[in-house]
Amino acid sequence: MQYFPLFVDTQSLKVLVVGAGDVASRKLDLLCRTEAEVHVIALEISAEVTAYQQQGRITLEQRPVRELDIESWDLVYLATADKLLNETLATVAKQRNIWVNVVDNPSFCRFITPSIVDRGRLQIAISTAGAAPVYARELRARLESWLPQSITPLFDFIAERRQDVQVKLPIFKERRLFWQRFFKLNQSRFDEQTMSHYQASFSQQDGQGELLLLDITIDAELLPIAAMPYLQKLDIVFSKQSMPHSLNELLRRDAARDSNWSDSSLKQALKEGAHCLVCADVDEIMRLATLFPQAKRFKLGAI
Fold first, then answer.
1. What is the pLDDT of residues 142-153, one digit of tens each?
2. CATH topology match: 14-113 vs 115-147
3. 3-class DSSP state for residue 12?
């Protein structure tokens, strides 16, 4: 993984943008949605950049940039039409330990700006590490069409009630199960039923847990697409063997791991309503399938 995705708190962030043409304007469209302090230095100024200055959203200097300008910034975007100038200033920024982005020149970037799906508190960042930005934009368009606009007020609703849930349900596992119940009832919409779904989620009882069985020798890449939602809901992964990296990558990252489990501990987890996965050799999987007839067994291309 060349680029590690991070979400940066933009409060008090100081950002310099060098250049004020169409390319720089696209960067400013994103930056001006944040709480960052944005300063622009450029000779030629587009109408869009001028509008941001008139709104008081950015500060602007219409003059040539100097090496001395690359100082005391948290982030620097270089978007001039002069490739050599961009590369020179990028080198200066790196020498001064300033994170720099040179538009359309990944080899001089300390960071890159992903394609972003913006639904208020829900942010989805998409990157191809600079290899195929056109594909990233196409993927973003698909996500934009899939995610309803009502997610924005829904997440505001949830944020306003997180403290209420923490007070009523002080145990972390109870809160996690509560939110699972809420999203199962409410889905991703925000409407007149959302409050009733919220209140009902406190009183609704969780049923028996779910058990998934997987032969550890099966190639993770050959699992059916339908398996992915199950793997992302897991609470506990039971395996006495080391699991392949390709399989681990498909599992919910914060699921608990138990390498010293027994039938009784598995039964207890299911009784408590946990979503469980057992990875073992084929003989053990067949034994468990008999012991737990309600279990779902993953097979090549099927569940």
1. 999 999 999 999
2. no
3. coil
